[in-house]
Design goal:
alpha/beta; Spore Coat Polysaccharide Biosynthesis Protein SpsA, Chain A; three-stranded mixed β-sheet; 13 helices; 10 strands; globular
């Protein structure tokens, strides 16, 4: 087959410990028609020097974007997409790695599938900061499926963002159709998968194609309150768009209600706004009480004391849960 151009996008921020390993696995794909675009988001370590030295030794076509100030993941991705020339795009954070054959397998799949299939994804292994494999693959830590979702997975994505971004390949035309990443958001992938899934089908490859590194500085671990606020923003954005059918709208509203409850427990920056929007789209007694409490300047501790009084028990320590509403 004629192998179309693939744009491999590598995003780096303070990952000098890992970036060369990541780049080596991109090169090791041995894919015959590849361009590499590296974006360093104003790292404070010696990432830039390491990347420049590595790129100087590779014969793969490449471009290096060096941000002078930190732009965030969404703007950095947009800057790379604007110069990407590939028919297909695959992105990876510099602390993750690809497994051999990832690009070839996924390109061959998409080349054989109809144009309505916009994304192919696989599962990913998980490793610690030292590269030691951890129990369980990426998807099963987010969702349990009897069969991996394929085709129209829009509703499944509303229930949880289970797709490992580093294990995907996307048709470039998807971004041309649905638009670039939303730079008002703190993180990138869930909103984009939801937008693409409104217009395109998804395919699943059973070949595990990447390793996802769990590090202490990752957004999920170090910036969880901001992640929760961003997820609430995404729910509100899509609910306001009026582009969801009635069943999906209920699922999205349920998700917002759950996330707003977590934002209340965590006292996030946007928790008050999220609660009022949850009350608008999916009212419940629990959300109403929380709205009244925040209007009176009472936080989650007061809510727990009130709930304990109703139940006749001593208030327990707050245990935020996505199911708690």
């Amino acid at each position: 087959m004629q192998y179309p151009l693939v744009s491999a996008i590598v995003l780096n921020y303070n990952h000098a410990r890992f970036v060369i390993d990541c780049l080596d696995t991109v090169k090791a794909q041995d894919y015959p028609n590849l361009e590499i675009i590296v974006n360093d988001d104003a790292s404070k370590d010696d990432s830039v020097a390491l990347i420049e030295a590595w790129l100087a030794k590779t014969n793969i076509p490449h471009q290096f974007i060096k941000n002078k100030t930190n732009q965030g993941v969404c703007r950095s991705l947009n800057n790379t997409l604007k110069i990407a020339r590939g028919k297909y795009v695959s992105g990876i954070a510099a602390d993750d790695v690809w497994l051999p054959g990832k690009l070839r397998t996924q390109v061959e799949m998409l080349e054989k599938l109809p144009d309505r299939v916009g994304v192919v994804y696989s599962d990913a292994l998980q490793m610690d900061e030292n590269g030691k494999l951890l129990p369980g693959k990426f998807i099963e830590t987010h969702r349990k499926f009897d069969a991996m979702p394929t085709g129209n997975i829009h509703k499944a994505l509303w229930e949880d963002n289970f797709i490992p971004a580093m294990a995907t390949l996307t048709r470039r035309e998807c971004f041309d159709r649905v638009g670039l990443y939303d730079e008002s958001l703190f993180y990138e992938d869930w909103d984009m998968w939801l937008r693409i899934s409104r217009c395109y089908d998804y395919a699943y490859s059973d070949q595990v194609s990447a390793k996802y590194r769990l590090v202490g500085t990752s957004m999920v671990r170090s910036q969880w309150p901001r992640m929760v606020d961003a997820m609430c923003q995404i729910c509100i954005k899509h609910l306001k768009s009026e582009q969801l059918d009635s069943e999906t709208r209920r699922t999205a509203a349920d998700k917002l209600r759950s996330l707003a409850a977590i934002s209340f427990e965590l006292k996030t920056v946007r928790h008050k706004r999220s609660l009022f929007q949850a009350m608008k789209y999916r009212p419940s007694l629990g959300i109403l009480i929380r709205c009244l409490l925040v209007s009176c300047g009472i936080g989650s501790d007061g809510f727990e004391r009130m709930r304990a009084m109703v139940r006749g028990k001593r208030p327990a320590a707050v245990q935020p849960s996505i199911e708690q509403t």
